[in-house]
Amino acid sequence: MSSPKFDSHNQSDRRGHMQTLLTLGQYLWMEGRSDLKVRVVAAALLIICAEVASVYSPYIMKYIVDSMTGDVNPVIVMPVGLIIAFGAARVLTQSFSELRDAVFAKVGQNAIRQVALKTFRHLHQLSLRFHLERQTGGLNRVIERGTKSIDFLLRFMLFNIVPTLLKILFVSGILLVEYGWQLSLITLGTLIIFISFTFSVTEWRLRFRRTMNEKDSEANTKAIDSLINFETVKYFGNEGHEARRFDSALASYETAAVKSNTTLAMLNIGQGLVISAGLVAVMLITANGVVEGKYTVGDFVAIHSFIMLLMMPLNFLGFVYREVKQSLVDMEKMFELLTISREVADMPGARPLEPQGGEVVFHHVNFGYESNRQILHDVSFAVPPGKTTAIVGPSGAGKSTISRILFRFYDVDGGYVTIDGQKINEVTQDSLRAAIGIVPQDTVLFNDTIRYNIGYGRPGASDAEIEEAARLASIDKFISELPEGYNTLVGERGLKLSGGEKQRVAIARTILKQPLILLFDEATSALDSRTEKEIQTSLAEVSRNRTTLIIAHRLSTVVEADEIIVLEAGRIVERGRHQELLAMEGQYAAMWSRQQEAASYQEKLEQVMD
Fold first, then answer.
1. In this structure, are 271 and 398 located in the same domain?
2. Domain boundary among 475, 498, 514
3. What is the DSSP string of 15-77?
4. Which of 308, 335, 352, 519 is the most buried (most CB within 10 A)?
5. Is 3 within the bounds of a domain?
6. Quick one: average pLDDT of 448-475?
7. Angle, helix 162-179 to helix 181-228, in steps of 10 degrees
8. Three-state SS at 592
9. Of the residues 276, 305, 339, the one at which a domain ends
10. pLDDT in tens, 591-608
11. Could you tell me where the beta strands, DSSP code E, fall in 313-393?
């Protein structure tokens, strides 16, 4: 089952955008957060107050002009009160706007935080299949753009679009009541033509913005992928190849960006023509009214101010529409992540695992990553409490699949798995994974300190507990010799440490977790024979008296196991203890013979090298 693909061209715009706004509204008007609701209401009232003060300013200017162009000498009788009132109206407009921003800031930032946190949590709850199919760079870009778009949408939609709509309502009403239907009709007609032109041209320009976003994500994905695989790039001397791949995406971005900027100039010119035409028409009618004595000079100034009050924010309408629409698309993509169902979910009413001795049982398990590609065929075995069972076999036999099933990264297609008699699909995943500790083949560390990486086994553990775990993993001496000790940074994916050092950190981390069941998944396969023997000693110490499942390719690491299971093509072909399997002279014995010959050759080679 493959995960849904994100396609910027597949939008179902209206339904999707409306659903996106409704989803965002839930985070603005959160149940149980009366403090946030009060802020939303207060911000709405402040928006209205700011617009009332804004549209009242032209009225005051009208009376100022009329008082100064009348029969009274303006030098003797200065309209001081009106001028002060005009200044007060401007101050109130700005003050209400700033208070609105301050009051709403907590609501907006809380919404961004809650959406980002919910998305982050949800991504960690999705299946391993989803993350294996998803490109980290592109996914990160979706989340980054989605959270940024919330901030943009709130600022421009609530503090630009809504105030502009209120201005249109107030000004149109004033012109209709005070100055007649002609001016109101011309103003509304100009606005309709302006908005229609802006929306149609901006919609046409969105194709270039979509291309820019796609190429931006592509370039970002390629850059991250290349930098994560820095060593591989160096090994093959492919710096130039990586630069060309990156530049190819940048070149496509450049082409789309140039087209976007060129068409923006066309949009701005067209908007200017529409605004100027409407403004000239209104001014001609008003000037004629002044000449005929129908209007005063103050009316002329006031009407001009009203029109400019409308047109100034509309100058940004193309930008705002484009960005708001893109923000909705970006948010929609991020909210789509939240709609992806969890392939592996807790059953309704699932209870925590109740550990007893740690018995693990696979009962007639069938599994395939795809419906047409079965990996495990009728696999059955049991690991008694405190015992060690090893699973061996060639690459592709299905060994690591067993570990993923035990952790319930995937649900089985047939059969079931139990721990202490409890089916793992009937208990909570948190309690299941808390009971199992793993030392994987490829230990990936966080780009943080050694202390943090060991402490990750049990967040909140004390320094003494972390250091004791390091001692039991036989890495404490190595750490003490480092200049910064436990505060040494391990680098991206732990690349500053050797393979053996990373494995010891993984062992220490597992020791700190104190699990009931231990799983060693090819834990030493990537190490040299000397380091392997040292790590094996640590593993033996850790697994004493614990239920242990060892997945291994090197048979020398499992000779002491209580039972060895041989897998081939997803089927159990042999099982028994080491000596019993050798006596069978079957698959296991053949593997043992080949590996012994290889080990003998390696030892001779190492002696020569020494």
1. no
2. 514
3. HHHHHHHHHHHHHHS-TT-HHHHHHHHHHHHHHHHHHHHHHHHHHHHHHHHHHHSSSS-TTTS
4. 519
5. no
6. 88
7. 170
8. helix
9. 339
10. 888 888 776 766 666 565
11. 360-370, 373-383, 388-392
